[in-house]
Amino acid sequence: MTGERRPVAIVGLGKIALDQHVPVLSDSADFRLAATVDPNAAGIAGVEHFAALDEMLDARPDIRALSFCTPPQGRFDLARRALEAGRQVLLEKSPGASVAEVRALADLARDRGLVIFATWHSRFAHAVAEARHWLKDRKITGAEIIWKEDVRYWHPGQKWIWRAGGLGVFDPGINALSVLTEILPEPAFVAASELHFPESCETPIAARVQMRSVGGAAIGVELDWRHAGTPVWDVRVETDAGTLVLSDGGARLAIDGAVRSEGPDAEYAGVYARFAELLATGGQDMDDRPLMHVADAFLLGRRVVTAPFSD
Amino acid sequence: MTGERRPVAIVGLGKIALDQHVPVLSDSADFRLAATVDPNAAGIAGVEHFAALDEMLDARPDIRALSFCTPPQGRFDLARRALEAGRQVLLEKSPGASVAEVRALADLARDRGLVIFATWHSRFAHAVAEARHWLKDRKITGAEIIWKEDVRYWHPGQKWIWRAGGLGVFDPGINALSVLTEILPEPAFVAASELHFPESCETPIAARVQMRSVGGAAIGVELDWRHAGTPVWDVRVETDAGTLVLSDGGARLAIDGAVRSEGPDAEYAGVYARFAELLATGGQDMDDRPLMHVADAFLLGRRVVTAPFSD
Distance (Å) from the C-alpha of residue B185 to the closest C-alpha of chain A? Predict the structure, then answer.
């Protein structure tokens, strides 16, 4: 490592910031956590804390890079203010509450020559790059995503996921779609979907989405938050030259049943390594396809009302 | 006019084809209707008719330009086959059932050097270009879309509009969004929405959408299919230099209450003039923003169940 660690501020000190961003930054060779912003949190010992973004932007002109970990609803205004103040921006997934917001933020950053990065952390899981490489020259004949977990365990008390715009089961499901769009060698689109809404909720607790690749391969997507016990986070892709399975959210790769690669979780180390690369070279990395597919799934969704959910 | 009229085939001989495309083509200086394709229609006197697209593509290699007037569900495969057969493509709105489909079709056409054109017919209403010109250098401070019509009068017996993917009240509402995106001098996005679904239907009969411009102006969108009598198809834009009102779906323009421009409906003549221009110059005109905003409105939509609807 050469030079000083770059100061970065975290905006939105919720679960994902505390679980992932803070520990990764404390071990980072590229960055150091220099400030936090959150109106509802007390901050972290030894790190300057602000209740409002504007205060931080004024007080700390030395902090050029900001990580946004706030929920997607309300994200746009904060990110826009940061860009208007000349800051470089990392966006925890989902990068915005709507596809149009993501596109607008990318344009704002491009117009100002600033870095903006939609992280899609699951793309940095151990075996994803290798899966992509293996599929690159193969013909896809079918695929299946199974993404099931217990919402009570993984999202305890997170009210925003149940409010309109909070994505519901697509909050984890968008991770699967971020992996799918990363590894598939051809574009795909949603052809039909069925969304299961608990009576009391504005977002779905489960979904079955039928996608298709442009070449005509069927891609089934099954998302469920009512799954007790060990989560299932698997992507299987059938090709003309064997079957690829990415399991454990991308940590393990098997081809025709034989494990090819397996490794520990270092997704957020990869996220920040990519951010450092973007800051060094400039440019925008704002792939909106995972969110576009979710919006399409809602657009095409047949709604099924299911049992009420309460946390 | 110089040279021969270019032969064009209509695929999907439903209401919009018979009401608009067929009469405009019969009066066109650029095109002549050379074939029709529809498995469920008998065809038009004096015009060769095919039950299937592939038959027409094989039998009539002389027809290089195709107008797709089928419902958006199922549109992708037909348009893809036409592009793969080297044909130039016009797509009646909506250009696809999903945002990803539209993007994929644009890419397929671009890769093959073929013309593809998402028509958005309301953009060709008499006063839209003038509205766009007037707004170009002004600052938007607010806007409102009111789009209300009687679904029983305008869409009699059209079952597909009530099936998932059929867009419901966004089938006319997307016309308003196509005008808005054409005339606004800055990008906008959906911030929240409320969708009113009749108990018996998979698509909404009414919607209230809150949009915002990137600059922060509030844009209200009110869509309603339960409106008896004269339809209301108005877009009002407030600026720092007066209020613009486009009414009658874009036929009339008023500034601060004074009518500036008013003219007869010639939207589809404009659509085909633009298609002729694209065929002469090459290129793709595939703006996906109107559909993106609709998808975002579904993504962010709070659902309200209303009285059952039957046609």
Answer: 13
Contact (Cβ atoms closer than 8 angstroms) between residue B242 and residue B123: no
Cα–Cα distance between B122 and B250 in angstroms, integer? Answer: 7
Domains annotated on chain A, with CATH? 6-121+268-285 (3.40.50.720), 126-263+295-306 (3.30.360.10)
Which residues from chain B sit within 8 angstroms of residue A207, using beta carbons? Answer: none
Cβ atoms within 10 Å, residue A212: 22
pLDDT in tens, A214-225: 999 999 999 999
Active site residue B148: no
d(CA A237, CA B125): 47
**CA separation (Å) from A251 to A62, A133, A163, A185, B261?**
37, 15, 31, 20, 62
Query: What digits encode the pLDDT tens for the residues A109-149?
Result: 999 999 999 999 999 999 999 999 999 999 999 999 999 99
Q: ipTM value of the model?
A: 0.96
Q: Helix or strand or coil: residue B124?
A: helix
A303 contacts B189? CB cut-off 8 A: no
Query: pTM above the 0.80 mark?
Result: yes
- CB of B85 within 8 Å of any CB in chain A? no
Q: Could you read off the pLDDT of B166-204 as tens digits, one per residue?
A: 999 999 999 999 999 999 999 999 999 999 999 989 999
The DSSP line for A195-247 is EEEETT-SS-SEEEEEEEETT--EEEEEEESB--SS-EEEEEEEETTEEEEEE
Per-residue confidence (pLDDT) for residue B3, from 0 to 100: 66
A98 contact residues in B (CB cutoff 8 A): 189-191, 296, 299-300
3 state SS of A56? helix
